[in-house]
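Q: Is it fine to ask for two folds in a single conversation?
A: Yes, each is treated on its own. Send the first.
Q: Here.
A: Result:
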Amino acid sequence: MSLVPRVNLRRTFLIARRDYLGYVKTWGFWISFLLPFLFGGFGFFMAQADLDFSPPQYVTVLDTTGEHEARLMDLHAERKDDRAQGVMSGKAFFIQDKAKRAEFNRVLRSEGTVAAQAYLKENVPGVRTEFEMPEDKFKFVPPPASSLEGLVPYLLGEKMISVDGQPTELGGAVIFKKGESRAQPQTEYWSTNVNKVDVPDLLDVYLRRMARVTYLETQGLSVAELDRRVDTAPEAVLFNPTKVDDADQGVDSSDTVPFIVAGVLAFFLWLTVFSGAYMLLTSMLEEKLNKLLEMMLATTRFSEIILGKLLGVAALTLSMMAPYIIVGIGGVVAYIFFGPDQDVVKGLVSAFSAKMIIFLIIYLILGYVLYGAFFIALGSLSSSMQDAQTLTTPILFVLMACLIVIPMGVTDPDSPMLRIATFIPFSAPFAAIVRLPSDPPLWELLLSTAFLTLLCIGTIAMAGRIFRFGVLSGAGAEVVVAWFKRVVLRRKA
């Protein structure tokens, strides 16, 4: 008897086509297919509409000491300027020359956004210098009353303040009272919205700064000089001794981008395997409950049904992922040809190497076959959706556990745990992909592939037997439990 089951390609193709078209003709498939484009268009519309769903909170300050209100306003303006610098720092992404990019960052840190804009105009004319100032989450307004008792009706919404001639609710009130010392005033914040912590956070920063200023001044030191020295302090420079194609062996975006790309591809692989395997389960369970499998077995072999379902759902999964694949490939190609940061371009080119593409395809096929065979077998044993969920819970836990290796590969690609996961067939597809940018030995990848292939062959053989047993005898989970008690636990029926 041949070890390889006989398969009629025409019947296998008909089963695959039936499973594929059965899903493609549904509304749910096309909704899922068009979702990326719908969300993309919606996001573009919202960006162009410039709608404000979170208007700023209006806060007043009642300073009975006369010392802290002005300083608090200065700190608020300073933090707003820091946010503006954070937005402006994104302009460095469009400066290709490393020396000019470093000088731009230095000017931005030491001289501010206005000087940085002037530097861009003079030295990098191709980069737009305009940028939008971040919106305030809260704004200070003059106090409508001179005491806390007078402010309470405004805080409760019983009275309104006037902002630009429009009646507006008062969101909060900051109260400064004399404390134990000048650096430690008694500070209170009154508001009915206890979930908004932006103002309390600003007050905490202010009080800590006041404590520092008071201490340094008593020691005869200047806070401004300390801040200047901290802002102009040099930054650490990273080097990689394994870089032989770079004269200075410095680390830049071209070294980190491949690990990010590998993490994204590994997650895409996991999502494809998970969605495809789960669709196999639901397809198998639906046809078993509707007695369609018994009708198919009259003219079709078990091996043809399993292979046909694997091929049909695989084609369906790739069709559902097609929008994401198209958008991803289009974005990467566009950035490679038109991207301003050549380090990122170099990293993208090195990330999509021949080794990455080959092993991505190999692990995609083997991972899908492995988990798909498990779900086909469990689906044939199930007699209801609740039954199927109970049986597949262990496999779902395994799949969820495999997600751990993806962020680990991005942040710590040399982790021994990640290397061990490469040789465990259940996690091998994801662990091996995220390890590829660190250039693991080829024998490790081949050995991992061999282990995964052997387990796939064994799983398919086991799935065929379970499928035949579950369909012909109508067995369910209770039969598996009875077998486990009889054979493993040695209990009599």
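Q: Second one now.
A: Result:
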Amino acid sequence: MHLEHPDTLITILHLITLLAIPIHVFGTYCILFKTPKSMESVKLIMLNFHVWCMVLDYGITVLTVPYLLFPVLGGFPLGILKDIGVPIEVQSYGILTLVAVVSAAAIDIIENRYYIVFAQNTKWRRYRIILTIFNYSCSLAWTLPAFILLPDQNTAAPGALRILEKFGTVPEYIRKAPIFVISFDLRTITLPCMIIAGFFVVEVVVFVVVMTRGMSKLKQTARFSKSTLKMQRNFLNAIYIQVSVYITSIQLPIFWFIVSILADVHFQAINNLGFVMFSFNGVVSTVIMIWIHRPYRDFCLKIVKLNKLSNNAVHVDSGGTIHSVAPRVTSNAY
């Protein structure tokens, strides 16, 4: 199996789906039923982020399975939506939009914590909804310039093949594929991408700086006890870690995609590997969420301990003596 082949990509992404489903379900259960009252204010916001991460994961690994052809701004889908006849431009718009929506949902978590701890009695309570509407509106609109200016696909697909031919022989499975090209003009996609990414980065930095300074000021007041301050600080650190993991898992593949486009290089195996990393975003984010938030971690460890106890069976002999029975160990011969 070669990583550059479409069948390999499909197999890997479907295996990731099988791994992701139980992890996502467990994460959803933790948020819905194991979130303590002390975290109630962030429960729906965390669920919102978690759900959008799941939608993005399944959108990539099952629904679309994008096979991208960087440095060409195009590719073709291999997922279920292709089989049921959903237009490629609709699939492309959906995935690109979902990436931005998940980013907006991550910002919601940080903003919510700022509001709860620092801004409930300030003017921010009237403006925060405007920021949320702005972020999600930008998420829906940032790709519109590219899709409004789509090239004629009858000539775009041959043009994409000519670009790929510079890097060697183009496999037959690519030549016969329904290649969809978003644009040959980098500005129509990269400029809006840089603008929305800039907005999101500035928002995250501002909230982090303001909250860091706010926590320092709270230490000098009697508003919270030391234990409450410690809890708030730990919760903020947990949120920072969760959002940072998401940003890293998204940014590393995007960094390669940008390098491939700007440097005009084509390595299909790395293109596919980038999307494999991309599709792990929701799984990694969920695992990190379960581990860094103590209520979820404790619940998970409790399940593990109960499982261990259930394996330590006991046997009562005819004389009434209780004997511990060690778990049966089986070995595989090679």
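Q: Anything structural to flag on that second result?
A: Two points. Confidence is low (pLDDT under 50) at residues 313-334. The CA atoms of residues 107 and 203 lie 8 Å apart.
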